[in-house]
């Protein structure tokens, strides 16, 4: 495992990747942030040794190194999911590589469906806590102790300092930023009416198919992490609409400028 990570890192360094201060994972339909990045190097995932390959058509599949708001950043343009057939180790492998490159903080974005119907389409939710419903852990494998301690505290998985900066920035820019609990499910199918009712009962405010494994590994590596969900649809069991992926992507695009402002504001202050 450590040899594989080293080989991935050595390859990226040979391609001109330097030491990033901040890592950023861009979720479904969320790529506008790259318009503000001074890109120095980029590599397709399928060229990096041992990296998975993005199979979702709206995930670009590139690792990018550059500068944003005076900070060196490494950006995942597209992520990996369990529903693509990957293991939890595969899904979180890039986080371990970015850490070995030098990443000190991690920012995560995703598209999610609202369980809390006070959250509107195209609005943002700051993740305060999560519920892991993916049926496994990215730390449950033989030899995990070679990469960090086995039993990881998760009493505060999302960094309070960064969350506070996001909240102040949202007020400054007059951006609606809800706070809530994100439930991560396996997918790729969307939820049934009964499943939406269940998610509400257990305390979820939004549901998606990513993020939680990456956050667990960030905590395993002692990397402060913060995450924002873009609300792209609503899971109202009493009035459940059929899934329209184009509508989901349109709502993600609608919310992106606000998310970009928050990410840039945070980078200025950390």
UniProtKB/TrEMBL annotation:
Keywords: Glycosyltransferase, Transferase. SUPFAM superfamilies: Purine and uridine phosphorylases (SSF53167). InterPro entries: Nucleoside_phosphorylase_d (IPR000845), Nucleoside_phosphorylase_sf (IPR035994), Purine_phosphorylase (IPR011268). GO terms for molecular function: purine-nucleoside phosphorylase activity. It comes from the Bacteria. GO terms for cellular component: cytoplasm. One of its GO terms (biological process) is nucleoside metabolic process. Its EC number is 2.4.2.1. Pathway: Purine metabolism; purine nucleoside salvage. The purine nucleoside phosphorylases catalyze the phosphorolytic breakdown of the N-glycosidic bond in the beta-(deoxy)ribonucleoside molecules, with the formation of the corresponding free purine bases and pentose-1-phosphate. Belongs to the PNP/MTAP phosphorylase family. This is Purine nucleoside phosphorylase.
């Amino acid at each position: 495992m450590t040899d594989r990570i080293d080989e991935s890192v050595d390859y990226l360094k040979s391609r001109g990747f330097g030491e990033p201060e901040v890592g950023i994972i861009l979720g479904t339909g969320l790529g506008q942030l790259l318009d503000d990045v001074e890109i120095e190097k980029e590599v397709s995932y399928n060229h990096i040794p041992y990296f998975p390959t993005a199979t979702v058509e709206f995930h670009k599949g590139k690792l990018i190194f550059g500068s944003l708001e005076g900070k060196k950043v490494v950006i995942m343009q597209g992520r990996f999911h369990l529903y693509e057939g990957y293991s939890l180790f595969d899904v979180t492998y890039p986080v371990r590589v970015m850490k070995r490159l030098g990443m000190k903080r991690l920012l995560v974005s995703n598209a999610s469906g609202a369980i809390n119907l006070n959250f509107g389409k195209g609005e943002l939710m700051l993740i305060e806590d999560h519920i892991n419903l993916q049926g496994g852990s990215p730390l449950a494998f033989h030899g995990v102790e070679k990469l960090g301690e086995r039993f990881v505290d998760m009493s505060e998985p999302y960094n309070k300092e960064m969350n506070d900066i996001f909240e102040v920035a949202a007020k400054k820019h007059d951006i609606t930023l809800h706070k809530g609990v994100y439930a991560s499910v396996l997918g790729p199918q969307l939820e049934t009416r009964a499943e939406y009712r269940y998610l509400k009962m257990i305390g979820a405010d939004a549901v998606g198919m990513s993020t939680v494994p990456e956050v667990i590994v960030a905590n395993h590596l002692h990397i402060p992490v913060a995450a924002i969900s873009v609300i792209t649809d609503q899971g109202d069991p009493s009035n459940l609409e059929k899934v329209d992926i184009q509508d989901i992507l349109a709502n993600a695009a609608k919310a992106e400028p606000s998310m970009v402002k928050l990410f840039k504001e945070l980078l200025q202050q950390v």
